[in-house]
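Lab meeting, action items carried over

1. Structure of the two-component assembly. Owner: GW. Status: complete.
Input record:
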Amino acid sequence: MSEKSDNSEQSEKKKAEASRRLFLKSSATTLGGAFLAPFAEPSARGPAAPQSAPPSGGLDLPSLTLAVAAERLRTRQLSPVELAQAILDRIEQLDRRVGAFITVAPRQAMAAARAAEQEIAQGRYRGPLHGIPFGVKDTHYTAGIRTTAASRVLTNFVPDFDATVVRRLKDAGAILIGKTNLPEFSFGGVTAGTNNPWDLSRNSGGSSGGSGAALAAGMLLAATGGDTSGSIRNPSATCGVVGHKPTFGLVSRYGIVPISWTLDHIGPMAKSVEDCAILLKVLAAFDANDSYSVNVPIPDYPSLLRQSVRGLRLGTPPAAILAEFHPDTQAAFREAVRVLEGLGSRAQEVTLPPSFALAGEAQTIVRICDAAAYHRQYLKTQADQYGPENPALPPVSQVRTTVEAGSLLTAAQYLKAQQFRRVFIQECMEMYSAFDFFLSPTMPAPAGETATPRITFRAEYDLNGFPAISVPCGFSTSPPGLPIGLQISALPFRDAEVLALAYAYESATDWHRRKPVL
Amino acid sequence: MAQGVNAAVNAAMVRALAEANGISIPDDRLDIVLEQYRTYLELLNHLDAFLLAREAEPAVKFELPRAGTTPGR
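Predicted assembly:
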């Protein structure tokens, strides 16, 4: 935790309190005076915050959603400094037990929060991410803050520029709080060292496990993750938050330590579908530095959330495949389908195309070959340094074994998998012509439980690049209290529709409102 | 051993392949890498059993760099 225990903490807290009081004083003045003009109906927003009362009004700030916090920031009922400090306090209080962060950057965060506060007070509000604390997976390059990918290979790597997505979030006014934990180089579905806030004896899932756990524990209001084999959706489901894997090419991968150039997807993770939509609107953009970036119009995702689901056709997995999932996962999934049917949509079981059964194999070959090519630079010069960056973990590196073995595969074998991939995508496109969305459980089983279905509907969606979101859809009963996720997917570039259906489901249920007791 | 993978795929072959590729795998790691390599070969056997049209193209494309992009060096 590079900056986490610096000596300026008390000083930062005093500055935060002084800044908050000044901000409120300024807000009270502006709401009643010079800055009244932009607000059409001040009375509709409630009275200006009195100087003697805290604007948070006893709110538990870390538990706020991004959307709720954004509205309070916009209307100056909440100071970015106060919010950032509350998040840093929460991390200080909890992260020893959760282990969501590799690096926390309080000085940079508070400096950015003060700048945001000043801008908002001056009427230069940038939008709903202005003043919002966020974290990124520690694969994202961050200028001046080390980027380790949780590996000893990169333990001293301090980038001199921000990844495109980090830059876009900062440009939108968001406050970078820190870098979240992952398995070494994102390899694996378990994030060693990150405990699940719903049961600290269990893992958060992975590979974006730090982001998922931090959101569930109220240590962030927004985060990003990377998804190559399911690594946004897995920890989102496992930790009871929302994670969206966008259509491939929609969000830039530039400046992010890769697993696979043709499978990696970067996307938002948050506490609600609306929050993910707000984040995606900022994250999605053409980036000439990402060779697979696509230049398409970016919809206003938040404004498209409220859609009728009546008459929508929903595909569901074959019963024989679904039966291989954990019993509680099956039950939660079936109930989620019933909820959507109750909203007027129609569900139908789908026959999967033949290539679906082998998509996992092709995804593995593509992933391993891409990874071997990237890691060649380290295998040749730093092979002995592979292993988790966290000294508390066993110095065993599955990454090294994987990329050493992957280095032995031939270009012809790689292209064979890519040839298969194209056929698979075509068969998926044809399959989706029979319905509007395909639903599946996000994970085979809740955290730490075992189920091994032949098809998991995770890596397949990295191979085809289709958008897929995970939204909370229930909790296990045996063992009790572990989150379960519903995955909703659609054809490429129908991210807005995926978010809208997820929003409709979320609005009809309250799973996303439940919080772990920590 | 993964089913269907040629028995000739052994530690000596892994060492030779790695060295030909400019990578050195220490002796104490050869068996674990061999096991992983055989797993990949088995996956490829499964893929080979799925017949593709003769004209099927791979899902990778060549594209000239766009103006203003970072060359990556």
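2. GW to write a short summary for the group page. Key points so far: Chain A touches chain B through 37 residues (CB under 8 Å). The CA atoms of residues 23 and 118 of chain A lie 8 Å apart.
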